[in-house]
């Protein structure tokens, strides 16, 4: 399988190369040149399989890895999950389902990809004998999942930039309490978009990138998206695909999770509605509604992991909507950086609308959804999931609609308690999280200073 960049000026790479590169050298994102297909029989055969076996069948055609080696890594990645199904479905209405993606070690959907990437990186490093430096940006969940996956690993230094004061206390403590010296939590004086821009600036400084062996664990890395494709297949097969089409609603920020749904559909999965659900930071909903993609400034919400305006993976969706016209994408991304926005062409907007529906939830609607679902079903939603459930409830859709439950409610206890009166408890294994001592470095939103700090900390 070969991977090319959305901006057309970077080398075409194999799976391992694209994974290690993270961001392409022209600033673009890697995508497979062709999407492997799953037939109706292939999809039907997934019903009832262990998650790990389904993951192998879905991901294998995208990689160049020997089947047994990939199977071992998948097994190791999901062994620590707290649910035998890994991604169980829970029914909350006659046609309404939650896909619980929070049974991994850090209680958010990020563990699905991050635990696997941890295995994949170790495999490459063992074979090549190289060291790597991970620099990631987080609005809370990617960072904790990355730190969990890479803490204590020989040959890896992991730096995570998070927006100071804008993540939940549980998210912060998950990043700041691990004591291993190779993981570094950096609280940046800015928002998530500032953190992500700093990471991309480091990748675009090729001398720095090559000097430190920089690699990415955000969903700019294709391997992240790929691992997230799997649960669309397992959920849809469990609900009767390919015999019937399934809808998915996805709480969206950096657009990685919903893009994985689009990839699943392009592979042949019958998804009849794929819905982008945004909080008040609704640039994606506005874009799909009007065609104007324009930043307005991020506002903090009760679903902080989705407080994002520069949504990295939207670039991949645009590339597909512009029929692979890399120079058009490079131009749009220049406009975004220079003018704070761009207008999508009519043809591309139509293609985007044929692929994605969208909706938004206000803060009041999010809280009311947490309250109502708890009262009606006893299910406790995290605020991100509640955004999804609210938007899903407004869709003109017949048949099963699955909302991705992206985080455990205990990661956001204040919002949940305010809506339900109930303070969700952390799982037993994390019960002492509030007692552990924290280790964090506060840093200015300054790429030069961040690069110096990283160089100082490297062994
Ligand atoms: C809990 C939670 N829900 C939803 C999202 C949005 O996912 P994505 O950034 O892939 O759109 C995130 C952050 O990525 C998250 O942490
Ligand atoms: N919500 C994310 C933001 C980064 O998204 P990613 O999927 O690109 O890593 C977070 O929790 O950090």
What does this entry look like structurally?
The chain is α/β, with parallel strands linked by helices and 459 residues long. Helix content is 44%, strand content 15%. The two termini are 35 Å apart. Helix 11 links the parallel strand 9 and strand 10. The chain is globular, with a radius of gyration of 20 Å. Bound molecules: pyridoxal-5'-phosphate and the ligand N[C@@H](CCOP(=O)(O)O)C(=O)O.
Can you summarize this structure?
This protein has 459 residues and is α/β, with parallel strands linked by helices. The chain has helices at 15-21, 40-44, 51-59, 67-78, 110-128, 141-150, 169-176, 192-204, 206-212, 222-238, 256-266, 283-290, 314-321, 326-339, 346-355, 363-377, 383-393, 413-420, 447-457, and strands at 3-5, 30-32, 89-93, 96-100, 132-137, 156-163, 183-188, 214-215, 246-251, 271-278, 292-294, 341-343, 357-360, 401-405, 441-443.
Topology summary:
Layout: E1 3-5, H1 15-21, E2 30-32, H2 40-44, H3 51-59, H4 67-78, E3 89-93, E4 96-100, H5 110-128, E5 132-137, H6 141-150, E6 156-163, H7 169-176, E7 183-188, H8 192-204, H9 206-212, E8 214-215, H10 222-238, E9 246-251, H11 256-266, E10 271-278, H12 283-290, E11 292-294, H13 314-321, H14 326-339, E12 341-343, H15 346-355, E13 357-360, H16 363-377, H17 383-393, E14 401-405, H18 413-420, E15 441-443, H19 447-457
Parallel strand pairs: 4-14, 5-6, 5-8, 6-7, 7-15, 9-10, 9-14, 10-13
Antiparallel strand pairs: 1-2, 3-4, 11-12
Residues 108, 141, 219, 251-258, 305-306, 384, 406-407 line the site of pyridoxal-5'-phosphate.
């Amino acid at each position: 399988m070969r991977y090319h960049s959305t901006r057309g000026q970077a080398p075409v790479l194999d799976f391992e190369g694209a994974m290690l590169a993270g961001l392409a050298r022209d600033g673009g994102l890697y995508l497979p040149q062709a999407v492997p297909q799953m037939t109706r029989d292939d999809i039907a055969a997934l019903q009832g399989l262990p998650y790990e076996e389904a993951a192998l069948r879905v991901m294998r055609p995208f990689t160049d890895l020997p089947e047994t080696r990939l199977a071992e890594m998948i097994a190791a990645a999901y062994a620590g999950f707290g649910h035998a199904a890994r991604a169980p479905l829970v029914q909350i209405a006659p046609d309404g389902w939650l896909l619980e993606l929070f049974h991994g070690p850090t209680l958010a959907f990020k563990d699905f990809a991050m635990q696997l990437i941890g295995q994949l990186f170790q495999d490459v490093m063992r074979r090549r004998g190289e060291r790597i430096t991970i620099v990631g940006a987080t609005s809370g969940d990617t960072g904790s999942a990355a730190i969990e996956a890479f803490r204590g690993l020989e040959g890896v230094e992991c730096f995570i930039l998070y927006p100071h004061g804008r993540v939940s206390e549980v998210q912060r403590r998950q990043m700041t309490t691990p004591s291993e010296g190779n993981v570094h939590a950096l609280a940046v004086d800015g928002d998530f978009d500032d953190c992500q821009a700093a990471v991309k600036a480091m990748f675009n400084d090729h001398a720095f990138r090559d000097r430190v062996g920089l690699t990415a664990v955000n969903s700019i890395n294709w391997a992240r998206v790929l691992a997230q494709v799997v649960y669309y297949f397992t959920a849809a097969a469990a609900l009767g695909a390919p015999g019937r089409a399934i809808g998915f609603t996805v709480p969206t920020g950096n657009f990685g999770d919903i893009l994985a749904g689009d990839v699943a559909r392009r592979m042949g999965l019958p998804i009849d509605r794929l819905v982008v659900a945004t909080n008040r930071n609704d640039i994606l909903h506005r874009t799909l509604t009007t065609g104007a993609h324009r930043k307005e400034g991020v506002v903090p919400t009760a679903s902080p992991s989705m407080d994002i305006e520069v949504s990295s993976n939207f670039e991949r969706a645009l590339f597909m909507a512009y029929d692979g016209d890399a120079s058009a994408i490079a131009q749009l991304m220049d406009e975004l950086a220079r003018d704070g926005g761009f207008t999508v062409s009519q043809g591309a907007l139509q293609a985007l609308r044929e692929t994605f529906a969208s909706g938004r939830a206000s803060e009041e609607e999010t809280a009311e959804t947490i309250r109502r679902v708890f009262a009606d079903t006893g299910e406790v939603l995290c605020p991100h999931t509640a955004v999804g459930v609210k938007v899903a409830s407004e869709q003109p859709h017949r048949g099963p609609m699955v909302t991705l439950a992206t985080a455990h409610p205990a990661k956001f206890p204040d919002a949940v308690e305010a809506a339900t009166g109930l303070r969700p408890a952390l799982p037993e294994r994390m019960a002492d999280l509030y007692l552990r001592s924290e280790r964090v470095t506060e840093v200015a939103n300054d790429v030069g200073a961040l690069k110096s700090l990283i160089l100082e900390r490297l062994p």
